[in-house]
């Protein structure tokens, strides 16, 4: 396990750029991420233990559509440019949504690309992540928030080829209560019913081509990370959940990347309390169809 004790980051996301020999570390970097948003920083390093930065990857202009809750930036190389998918709380209706920003380089500066959030305007949605399928169709996988639905949803939505807008209505892949490892989140009640959180989806393919989906929820009010695989091979699923969580030491919002040595690594933050959250990197291993961390 590698833990960077000096960095306060939630929702860590690592972009390896092999031609530069650099890892770019993004995340929710405001010291109080529950309040006013100042932007997103990025750190760079030739390994996962030492880094340089912070560098200002995104700073909102005066006309930006949001001013608080700047969360979970993820950066992808797509069609020769870099695209950031990030969550913001809108000024006009106070709902969360995921927008797309773009830059010529991972260091930025990232500028708005979509017209506000790509997620439905009437939904409270967060943690959008990009997945491009075998037909080169881009998708956004995101959460329809439990505070609006009660039983949080993981949804998928086709995007236009330029990533500026939705190309279809979202479909529900599964709900938080469907996994065998989750328990109701009772710290806050939504309409007096049992609530299940869905948080931080991320898709990746194993070396054998199997499609996996990481996502976070709670076990007895403690933050945890689980994984599911697509039995049908594509985004539509059906999604089969691994029986036990991958990480349940009050951490989650995971993503998977490959090191320059071609090893799978899992990135999470832990603990889940501000301002103590720190990024963790754990070697990620598949054994007999199930994933686990090396430690």
TrEMBL record:
InterPro entries reported for this sequence: Glyco_hydro_43, Glyco_hydro_beta-prop_sf, Glycosyl_Hydrlase_43_Enz
GO terms under biological process: xylan catabolic process
The organism's place on the tree of life at top rank: Bacteria
Transmembrane domains' residue ranges: none
One Gene Ontology MF term: hydrolase activity, hydrolyzing O-glycosyl compounds
Region forming the signal peptide: none
Keyword Hydrolase: yes
Keywords: Carbohydrate metabolism, Glycosidase, Hydrolase, Polysaccharide degradation, Xylan degradation
Claim: Signal is one of the keywords in the record: no
Annotated site residue numbers, Important for catalytic activity, responsible for pKa modulation of the active site Glu and correct orientation of both the proton donor and substrate: 127
Family the UniProt entry places it in: Belongs to the glycosyl hydrolase 43 family.
PANTHER family: ENDO-1,4-BETA-XYLANASE, PUTATIVE (AFU_ORTHOLOGUE AFUA_2G04480)-RELATED
This protein's name: Glycosyl hydrolase family 43
